[in-house]
Each structure stands twice: as structure tokens, then as C-alpha cells.
Write a structure and sequence with these properties.
The strands form 2 sheets. Strands 1-2-3-5-4-6-7-10-11 form a 9-stranded mixed beta sheet, sandwiched between helices. It has a two-stranded antiparallel ribbon with strand order 8-9. The chain contains 10 helices and 11 strands. It starts with a strand and ends in an 8-residue tail after the last helix. With 295 residues, the protein is of the alpha/beta class. The chain is globular. It has a domain of 205 residues: 3-Layer(aba) Sandwich (Rossmann fold).
């Protein structure tokens, strides 16, 4: 498919794990920005924001298992650590040695790992509604692993729900997997996040993405990770904060950045979709190379 979504156009490329699809805009020679969407979202997450970011070569892939991209092979697990290689493989396929990262939620967490692990490749980072990873108390390690293994063993054989029309999954998506989203944003995500089958539509995302994470970093590890992000970084948080990323923890994490700042604005978790002009005003010049402010 070679459709267009505003200024964004479809693309596909070959990566080691399989075919990666997504949306892109801009031209070679402009600042390169790889945009990583959130959990169970897809490249359409950046359609509203892209309209307010001219002069940038913006590439938003459907991350593996999401949207129209390939799923991981049987037996493989989706993890933040594995996603680092997925992002670098996508950048390699684009021919990008150095580039900026723009991430939302899960995508911001993955982008944080890439920036910390590969400082020689990342020019700057914009992290929206996440930074680093969600920490876990060490005493919960075994219980989390047991829950993840049990859920994973029970998943094969489960049938996908078939929707007779798109209005039903749009309504479901507005309620959110973790947080609610507006109907307009939900429709963008759903139209890219389903596939046609006999009798209607099913989610195109890999059901393994709904499994609990087997292992999480401790708070100390998350702090060390954030402190290891060397590139200029801008963090955007919505107010009020999400329950799983409360204050003062999220501000304390942002303050650990060696070269970063943090902007808090009224809005919801998907503020980059629902308030794209305001978010673009906060990040556009930064992505084009303007200096970061002190935190």
C-alpha cells in the first residue's frame, strides 16, 4: 500500500526479523528523527504531530508485532532489551548512522535504552510520557516471573475476537488498555491496528504483546540508565501524571539526565495525538538542533 496520511506516506523495509512497515515524511538532508510509538499503538500515533513538524525527516515504524509489521517468530519474547536491536536494525535499513529519537510511552522507554546503550549513534532524544523503564521492587521478582510464564504457556490456541465493524474496536480503544484515548485518536490507531478476516476485523498486533513482562529493572538500575543518557534530552510529561508513573518519581528521574530538561503540560497520556500543536511547539526546534535547557 502506498497511501498518504497528511504529509506522511507509507513505507516498508526489510529487517532481520522480517518486514517493517510504517509512515514517514520529509526529505534526505533534513534532521533525521526515528519515532517510536507506545504499547499496542502503531505508526499512526504520530500522524497528528507530524503535521506540525515540518523540516524534519520523520520516520515512524510500526514496531515488531504492532500495526502492519512482522511479528517475532514463535518462541521469541518481546522485551525492551530485544527492542534495542530492532530499533538499530531499522536505522541500519534506512542507512542512518546517527539520528534523533522521538518516543511515546513504551517507545520512549525503548528510546531511552537505545540512547544509553549506543551514545555514538543518537544525536538527541525526546521522551514523551516515559523515561527509562518502569521499575520493580526486587522482592516481586519471582512472583512476576511465575505470572509471566503461566500466562505465556496459556496463550497459544486462544482465538482472536472478530469485530463486525470498526466502530466496536474504536469504542474499545477509547477505554484504553491502560489509559483512555479520544475517539479521533482511537480511530487513527484502530484503522492501522486491525486486519480484515472473514466476518469482519481482528487486531493485527501480536497477542504475545499482552503478556506480563517477565523481568523488570530495579529502581537503582532505572536511575543508572537515565543517568547514562549522554545526548541532549527533552522530556514531556502530561499533568495529571499516570498512576504507574507518579510524582515525584518521574521528575526525580528526569533530573538525573546529564544534559536534559523536563516540560510538564496539561493533558492526557496521548497528548502528542490530542494536543499536537502544543507538543510540537515544545519539541520542534529541539529536534532541529536547538540547544537543550538545563533541567
Amino acid at each position: 500500500m502506498d497511501g498518504r496520511h497528511g504529509l506522511m506516506r507509507e513505507f516498508a523495509l526489510a529487517a532481520p526479523l522480517g518486514r517493517i512497515h510504517g509512515l514517514r515524511q520529509g526529505e534526505a538532508g533534513q534532521p533525521r528523527v526515528l519515532a517510536l510509538h507506545g504499547w499496542l499503538d502503531n505508526a499512526a500515533s504520530f500522524i497528528p504531530l507530524a503535521a506540525h513538524l515540518p523540516g524534519i525527516e520523520l520516520v515512524a515504524p510500526d514496531l515488531p508485532g504492532h500495526g502492519r509489521s512482522a511479528h517475532l517468530p514463535p518462541g521469541a519474547d518481546y522485551s525492551f532489551a530485544g527492542a534495542v536491536h530492532d530499533v538499530l536494525d531499522i536505522a541500519d535499513a534506512l542507512g542512518w548512522e546517527r539520528f534523533a529519537l522521538l518516543g511515546h510511552s513504551m517507545g520512549a522507554g525503548i528510546a531511552s535504552l537505545v540512547a544509553a546503550a549506543c551514545p555514538q549513534r543518537i544525536e538527541r532524544l525526546v521522551a514523551i510520557e516515559a523515561l527509562g523503564a518502569l521499575p520493580e521492587a526486587p522482592e516481586h521478582t519471582v512472583a512476576r516471573m511465575r505470572e509471566a510464564v503461566a500466562a505465556g504457556r496459556a496463550l497459544p490456541g486462544k482465538r482472536l475476537r472478530v469485530f463486525a465493524d470498526l466502530d466496536t474496536p474504536v469504542r474499545a480503544r477509547t477505554l484504553g488498555h491502560v489509559v483512555a484515548v479520544s475517539e479521533a485518536a482511537a480511530r487513527l490507531l484502530v484503522e492501522r491496528g486491525v486486519r480484515a478476516v472473514d466476518g469482519g476485523w481482528v487486531w493485527s498486533s501480536d497477542p504475545r504483546l499482552t503478556l506480563p513482562t517477565m523481568v523488570r529493572m530495579t529502581e537503582a538500575q532505572v536511575r543508572a540508565l537515565v543517568a547514562g543518557i549522554e545526548c541532549p534530552t527533552r522530556v514531556i510529561y502530561a499533568d495529571p501524571p499516570q498512576p504507574y508513573l507518579p510524582e515525584p518519581r518521574r521528575s526525580e528521574h528526569a533530573a538525573l539526565l546529564p544534559n536534559g530538561d523536563c516540560i510538564v503540560m496539561p493533558g492526557s497520556h496521548h497528548l502528542h495525538m490530542e494536543q499536537p500543536a502544543a507538543v510540537a511547539a515544545a519539541i520542534g526546534a529541539f529536534l532541529r538542533g536547538a540547544p537543550s535547557r538545563a533541567t
